Amino acid sequence: MFFYDYSTRTAATGKIDASGAFVHLQTFPVNQFGKWPQIASVGCGVLFFYSDEGANVLSASGRVDGAGGYTHLKDYPANQFAKSFQVVPLGGGRVFFYNSTTGAAKVGKFDTSGNYTNLKDSQAGTFGKWTSIVPFETGEVFFYNGDFADETGTQAAIGKFDSFGAFSQTASFPVNQFGKWSSITALAGRWALFQYSDGVSFPQATGQFTAAGAFNHKKNVALGRFWGATPIDEGSQLFLYSSAGSDGGAFVKAASGRMDAAGDIKLRDLGPSFDRWSHIVAA
Using one digit for the tens of pLDDT, what is the confidence trace for 62-118? Predict the structure, then answer.
C-alpha cells in the first residue's frame, strides 16, 4: 500500500500480511512527491498522480515494488488530461476519466512503463451524474448517485467497459433501491461495503451483485466508526483507516478486515502507530 499526505507531501509504503497484521516497508523524504489531489492504483503495478488545481493539469506515474521502494516512471505533458476528471481504475492498467459536471469521459490504458494510450473519448452528456463509481475486480463498474439536492432519490446502475473502452450497461436499479451512502467499497466476488456518516450515526451494510447485475443485500454491520476502506489482495481483505482532528491533535485508528460468507466483517485492531494520511491506495 502507498500512504500519502497532501498537506505535508510525506509518503510511506506498507502491507497487510496473511494474518491481518501491518508491516511497514519504507518512509520517503518530505517533498519527494508533489501536491496530488488524486492518486490511483491503475493496475499493472502503476500509480497515477493527477492535479487540476493550477492553471495547468499536471500528471505523473510511478511504481511501488515488493520491498516498498518507489520508482518514478513518467511526467506527462501539461494538460494531456483535462480538468475536473475523477480518476477511476478499471484494472489491468485501464482507467475511466469522468467529469461529473458535464458527463464527459474518456477511457485509456497504462502499460507497465507508464506509457498511456487513449482508447475512447465520450462527449458531454454521455454519462449521468454519479457521486460514486466503484470498480469490481471482475470488470463490472457500479454507478451510484446519492445526491439529494434535487430530491429525486438515490439512483444506481451497473455495467462494463470492453477492451476498446466502450461501455455497456448491465442493469439499472429502481430509484431508492439503495439507501443514502457516503462511501461504497468493492470487495472480491462482487461484494460491496456501504457506509454512511452524518457525524453522529454510522450505518454500514454489505451486499453482493450477481453476474446478471442484480443486487442482494446481505447484512447490516457495525464497524464502530466511519472508515476509509482500501481493498487489498484483489478485494479479499480491507485496510480500514480513520482520522479526526487537526494536524497537531489528530486521532488515528487503523484496522484490517476480512468478510465472511454471511457478509459480516471481522476487524483486527492495528494499534495507534499510524501517521495521518490523506490518501491510501493499494499499490
Answer: 999 999 999 999 999 999 999 999 999 999 999 999 999 999 999 999 999 999 999
DSSP string for 218-266: EEEE--SS--EEEEETTTTEEEEEEEES-GGG-EEEEEEEEE-TTS-EE
Give the residue carrying C-alpha cell 520508482.
71
167 pLDDT tier (thresholds 50, 70, 90): very high
pTM above 0.70, yes or no: yes
The rounded percent of the chain whose pLDDT value lies above 90 is: 84
Hunting for cell 492495528 — which residue is that? 270
Neighbours of 19 (CB within 10 A): 7
Beta bridge partners of 186: 192
Distance of CA 132 to the CA centre of its chain: 10
Judge whether 58 and 48 are in contact, CB under 8 Å: no
Cα separation, 234 vs 185, in Å, equals 12
Is 143:186 a contact under the CB 8 Å cutoff?
no
Count of Cβ atoms closer than 10 Å to residue 205 Cβ: 18
CA distance 2 to 252: 17
CA–CA–CA angle 46, 226, 93 (5° rounding):
15
For the sheet with 2-5, list strands across it. Answer: 22-28, 10-16, 2-5, 279-281
